[in-house]
Amino acid sequence: MFQRFRDRRTDRPTRLRYQETFLKREDFILPIFIVEGRRVSQPVSSMPGIFRFSADRAIEYLKSLIDSGLHSVMLFGVPGEKGLEQAWAENGIVQQALPRFKDTYPGLEVITDVCICSYSEDGQCHIGDNDRTCKVLAKIAGSHATAGADAVAPSDMMDGRVFFIRRELDRIGKTGVPVISYAAKYASNFYGPFRDAADSSPKHGDRKSYQINPPNSAEALEEIRADIHEGASQIIIKPALPYLDIVCRARTEFDVPLIAYNVSGEYAMVHALMEKGLAKEDIIYETLISIKRAGASRIISYHTPWALEKLDVYQSL
Ligand code: PBG
């Protein structure tokens, strides 16, 4: 006696009937790089199909995506010249872009990445001292919230930043702006194309003294627990694919919404296979569904435009 499984796989309609996990348009968050100026759109050479836009062009670009069901974006400001003050300035890139995004698309959730690495001269996510950095991050987060951010997402990995940011948001009356914390962010080799796009490579050294050491998992759960305790209402795990075990463990351990960041290197890797003719675009669907299957509530991904266009092809008869 043996069990038959192949009857669940005979043809496409059958496979769809037995499919356990599905992706929804609402699952996706699209990262957007914003640069200064007007009418600017610069392709990011290391990431096929990804651009750095000035705010006006980004808004144009989003129109068709929103028509196809885009719900959320995550903004990254990339200043023309380095200078820390621009990170919280009223006329900073992100602060200027926010009201324009919200005025044009009131229903779009606009999350901002809060970090200093693309603003600081040395490309590090801190200014030397942990607690002083937290105060700077709180100021940046406050300026984003004041400019209209729906949520702020600190990606620096300083200890205590969620506490400082939550306290600052409450102080300025932004009690309703959630902190979405990159609680479990690993010192990964998959960030290369992003650092290229955001011009945020550390000028010396690396980020190993603050991002999590890849062999550790219990520590990631501790980080998540601490951030929730400090006031984070959603959690980001980053990167996604090499850390799906963390997504899975966090899913069983915590009840908060869990977001997995399918980072730049994961995107470039999949595109490299497709460009070499070694994979069909099904590889993108497989990538995204694996993140959802592991337990992610939402996915930050550069594949979002593809997903919005193709989900129905994969998930309906
Ligand atoms: C740093 C930051 C990084 C990413 C977003 N914010 C990584 C880093 O340089 O350490 C990476 C995102 C990606 O690779 O897509 N504040």
Provide an overview of this structure:
The protein has 317 residues and is an alpha/beta fold. It has a single domain (18-315), classed as Aldolase class I (TIM Barrel). It is 40% helix and 17% strand. The chain has 11 helices and 10 strands. The protein has helices at 12-18, 55-67, 93-104, 130-147, 161-171, 192-198, 218-230, 244-253, 264-275, 282-294, 304-315, and strands at 28-35, 41-43, 51-54, 72-78, 109-114, 151-154, 179-185, 232-238, 258-262, 298-301. Strands 1, 2, 3, 4, 5, 6, 7, 8, 9 and 10 form a 10-stranded mixed beta sheet that branches. Helix 4 links the parallel strand 5 and strand 6 (151-154). The chain is globular. The two termini are 34 Å apart. Bound molecules: ligand PBG. Ligand PBG binds next to helix 6.
Structure characteristics:
single chain; 317 residues; alpha/beta; TIM Barrel; 10-stranded mixed beta sheet; 11 helices; binds ligand PBG
In short:
The chain is built from eleven helices and ten strands. It is of the alpha/beta class and 317 residues long. The chain has a single domain (18-315), classed as Aldolase class I (TIM Barrel), CATH 3.20.20.70.
